[in-house]
Model the fold of this input.
Amino acid sequence: GIQRLKDLGLNPIFLPHSLKGLDFIKEHPEARAEDLIHAFSDDSIDMILCAIGGDDTYRLLPYLFENDQLQKVIKPKIFLGFSDTTMNHLMLHKLGVNTFYGQSFLADICELDKEML
Done:
């Protein structure tokens, strides 16, 4: 998947907590929220492509909205994801950011063969 993105002329980066494993991700919604805040505040990041849908994105909400953390850094960027990331789409919509409901990195970039894309 990484090579496929590079072949498309993109320079994929992974945020600090994104590769720490499923158990870490499940146990630390605050770290996931921190990564999302980082992505929106970093001007070198043009697009946020969700890895996969998931099942508990709602757990990020307190860490993104308690002190307007996300609202303080929000900038228009491409945000692309589906399934459980619908919660992200809703909260970004509430902050005035247009998003794209669709592909994910794992299901659509990594797993599909070139001919299917």
About this structure: The domain at 2-116 is CATH 3.40.50.10740 (Rossmann fold). Helices lie at 2-7, 22-27, 29-41, 61-65, 69-73, 86-94, 105-110.
